[in-house]
């Protein structure tokens, strides 16, 4: 939930960059090699098509599975087994599934929205 986000002071940002310098270098290396591989093996246009197809499928599943238009506050999650653990200052959102889904679809939908600890 964006209400629990707050900007970091520049001094903290600089410290984090210094502390994570090696992580950033590793990320940069693998990000570069990932895009080189995409170019070589499938091309960016095919990747764009596949991303569009994935987004369409995600939207279809959201329409089929979710009650309402998306995520809800923890207090508004009706099924307690789908309520994410709340820890610290961050507020973790969750989902409500539509009622009356066919068994297989309900099983698929539940797996897609289940918080990591319950999963």
From TrEMBL:
GO cellular component terms attached to this protein's record: Golgi membrane
Recorded superkingdom: Eukaryota
GO molecular-function terms, A-Z: galactosylceramide sulfotransferase activity
Q: Does the keyword Secreted feature in the UniProt annotation?
A: no
- Alphabetically ordered keywords of this record: Glycoprotein, Golgi apparatus, Membrane, Signal-anchor, Transferase, Transmembrane, Transmembrane helix
Q: Which Gene3D superfamilies match?
A: P-loop containing nucleotide triphosphate hydrolases (3.40.50.300)
From the Swiss-Prot or TrEMBL record, state where the protein is found. Answer: Golgi apparatus membrane
Task: Name its GO BP terms in alphabetical order.
Answer: glycolipid biosynthetic process
Q: InterPro entries from the xrefs?
A: Gal-3-0_sulfotransfrase, P-loop_NTPase
Q: What is its membrane topology?
A: Single-pass type II membrane protein
What the entry lists under Pfam families is as follows:
Gal-3-0_sulfotr
Asked whether the UniProt record includes Glycoprotein among its keywords, one would answer: yes
The family classification in the record reads: Belongs to the galactose-3-O-sulfotransferase family.
Q: What is this protein called?
A: G3ST4 sulfotransferase
Name the species this protein comes from: Chloropsis hardwickii
Query: Gene name, please?
Result: Gal3st4
């Amino acid at each position: 939930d964006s209400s629990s986000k707050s900007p970091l002071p520049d001094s903290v940002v600089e410290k984090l960059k210094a502390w994570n310098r090696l992580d950033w270098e590793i990320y940069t290396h693998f990000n570069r090699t990932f895009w080189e591989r995409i170019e070589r093996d499938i091309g960016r246009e095919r990747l764009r098509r596949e991303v569009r197809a994935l987004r369409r499928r995600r939207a279809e599943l959201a329409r089929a599975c979710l009650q309402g238009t998306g995520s809800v506050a923890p207090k508004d999650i009706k099924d307690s087994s789908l309520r994410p653990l709340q820890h610290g200052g961050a507020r973790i959102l969750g989902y409500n599934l539509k009622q009356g889904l066919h068994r297989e679809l309900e099983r698929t939908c539940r797996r897609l929205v289940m918080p990591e600890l319950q999963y």
